Amino acid sequence: MAGHFITLEGLDGCGKTTQLHLIEQWLSERGDRFVSTCEPGGTSFGQNIRRVLLDSRNVGMVPLAELLLFAADRAQHVEEFIRPKLAEGVIVISDRYTDATLAFQGYGRGFDIEFCRQLNHMATGGWVPDLTLLFDIDVELALHRINERKKATSETGQAVQDESRLDNERIEFHRKVREGYLKIAAAEPKRFRIIHSGNDIETTWRETRSVMEQFFG
C-alpha cells in the first residue's frame, strides 16, 4: 500500500520548517510511520546541488542554470528517496517540491509556467503530492524574520552554511513568488490548504494540526 505524500510550501521566513517539526512530533505521537525530507538537498547528490544553488557567492548563476539544477535535484530525490519510501507505505513529508519551481522560477524568474510544469513532470514522472500546505505570509514580515534569524545566528557565533542567495533577491522578486504560490493554490483547491503563518507559532500550529487531522480523518 502506497504511503501519503505531503509537501510544505511558502516563502523563506514563513515558518514552515518549524511547523514541519511540530507535524513530526504529532505523527510520532500517533504512531505513524513517516520520514521528512527537503528540496533541494534530499539526497547526498542533492546536498551538493543545494550548496551550489543557495550559496550567496554564486551571483553569476543564470536563471536557466538555476532552474535545471533544481530539476536535477528533484529527479534524484524522487527516484532515490520519495518513490521507494511511498512504496513501503511510509508517509513522506517534503519541505518544498514541484510547486516551489513554479513559484520561484516560473512566477519569480519569469519562465513560462507550462515549460516549468513540463520540466517538473519529466523530473518526477508525474508524481503529485496528496496534500500541500501553503504557509502564506506578508513578504515584509517574512524578510524581517529572515533578517532577525541571521542577526541571532551572528550574535551567537554559530557557524552555518551560507544559504542566502535567494533571500538576497529584491523584494519585488519575493512578491512575485508569493503571488505565484497563491495562484497555484487557487488552481488546485483539492490539494492545497492555505495556512496563515504571520501569527505566532502556536496559532499557526493549531491551524496546521486541524488540516492534518482532517486529512487523516
Would you kindly provide a written description of the structure presented here, covering whatever features stand out?
With 217 residues, the protein is of the alpha/beta class. The chain has a single domain (5-216), classed as P-loop containing nucleotide triphosphate hydrolases (Rossmann fold, 3-Layer(aba) Sandwich), CATH 3.40.50. It is 58% helix and 12% strand. It has a 5-stranded parallel sheet with strand order 2-3-1-4-5, sandwiched between helices. Helix 2 (44-54) packs antiparallel against helix 3 (63-87). The longest helix is centred in the middle third of the chain and has 25 residues, at 63-87. The mean pLDDT is 93.
Task: Summarize the structure in short.
The chain has eight helices and five strands, in the order βαβααβααβααβα. The chain is of the alpha/beta class.
